[in-house]
Amino acid sequence: MITLRAVLCLALASAAACRAPQIPVERRYPAGSPFRAQYRVVDGTRLRMIDTGSGAPVVFIHGFGASLYGWRHTLSPVVAAGYRVIAFDNRGFGFSDKPAPQSGGEKLYTNAAYARLVVALLDSLNLPSAVLVGHSMGGAIAAEVALAYPARVRGLVLIDAAGFGVRWPGVLSVGRWPGAGGVAAALRGRWMTERVLRSTYGDPSKVTEEDVDQYYAPVAEPGYSRALRGVLRQFRFDTLIGRLGTVAAPTLVVWGAADRWIPVRDGSRLATELPRGAFIVLPRVGHAAAEEDPDEVNRLLIAFLKEGLPRVPENLAWSTPSSQRWYSSSPPIPPTRQRSAN
C-alpha cells in the first residue's frame, strides 16, 4: 500500500530535479554593498562572514535557511551608529561549510553545537563579550548562548525568535519525518525557495526577484540537502520554554504582528519570561521583520544599543513602536574603540 508519506516524498523529490541556475559569484551578497566577505575557520567549520566597523561588537545570527543577506538592510546603519558588526553564514547555511550531521560521535547541528560555535567565533576574534542579535533560529541560538555562557553576552536582540516552537510550512514539516530524507532535496528548487521566502513576509509582494536569487544561490550548493536534514533532525525549536528566567542580559524582543511561522502570542510568552526584557510588536509585518520593515527594526536596535531598554510597565510591553519611550536605566552599549580586522 502506498502511504501519503511516500507520495509526498516522491512528489517533492521529483520536483527537486527542476532547478534553476545560481546567480554568479560576482552578484552574491555582499557584492554591491560597502562590505566584503571573508572566511575564518571556527570550531572546525569554515565560516563566511563580514567583520567591519569600530566600537562595541554586535554579532548577527541569521535564521533558518538564511544567510548574511538577511542582514543587508541592517549592517550599514549599525556601523554608521558607531558599532562593529560581525555577521556570518552559520554552519550548514549560506556559503559556509555544510558538514555531515555527525562527526566523531558529535552532532553538529544541535542547539548546544551552534551555541558553542558562536562562542568559538568570539574567541577567535578575541572578543570577551558582544551584543547578540538573532532572528528566528538565530534568536534561539543567541538565547542559548546567553543561558550557557552568560558572561559572553552584553545584550540580546531577539527578532521573531524560535524557542517556543515553529509553525512549519508543509514541506518543511514533512522534512522532519523520519525516513523523509529525500524531501530536503526538493527544497533546492528555486520555486520552493520563493514560496518559503514569501511566507515569511506579512506582505509577500515585497519579496523581489533579487531576494529570491540571493536566497536560492546557497540552496544549490553541494551538501545543502545533507545540512538541511541535519538541522531539521537535530535542532530543537522549542527548548527555551521555562528557561529564560535566568537570562541576565537586557533583551529587546521584536515581533511581526503578521508572523505566520511563530505567532505573536509565542513572542509574548518568550518576553514574559525574561527578567530584563521589552517586547515590541510591528504592525502588518511578518516573520522576516528586519527585511520587511528594516527602518523600524534598525531604529529600535540602535536605540537599544545607545540608550537601553524601552520604559515599560513591569519591564514588558505589548505595543507598537510609536508608543515607546526610551530610557537608560538598563546600561546602554557604548561605542568603545574596538576595531575589526578589516
Describe the secondary-structure layout.
Blueprint: H1 4-15, E1 38-42, E2 45-52, E3 57-61, H2 75-80, E4 84-88, E5 102-103, E6 106-107, H3 111-124, E7 130-135, H4 137-148, E8 153-159, H5 170-175, H6 183-186, H7 190-198, H8 209-219, H9 224-234, E9 251-256, H10 264-273, E10 277-282, H11 289-292, H12 294-307
Parallel strand pairs: 3-4, 3-7, 7-8, 8-9, 9-10
Antiparallel strand pairs: 1-2, 2-4, 5-6
Helix pairs in contact: 3-4, 7-8
Whole-angstrom Rg: 19 Å
Number of strands: 10
Q: Helix share of residues?
A: 25-40%
Number of individual domains:
1
How far apart are the first and last residues' alpha carbons, in Å?
60 Å
This entry's quaternary arrangement is single chain
* CATH C-level category: Alpha Beta
List SSEs in N-to-C order. Answer: HEEEHEEEHEHEHHHHHEHEHH
Q: Which blocks of ≥5 consecutive residues have pLDDT under 50? A: 1-17, 311-330
Identify the overall geometry.
Answer: globular
Look up the CATH topology. Rossmann fold
The CATH architecture classification is: 3-Layer(aba) Sandwich
CATH superfamily: Alpha/Beta hydrolase fold, catalytic domain
Average pLDDT, all residues = 86
Strand order of the largest sheet: 1-2-4-3-7-8-9-10
| Strand residue content | 15-25%
Tally of contiguous helical segments = 12
Structural class: alpha/beta
Largest sheet: 8 strands, mixed
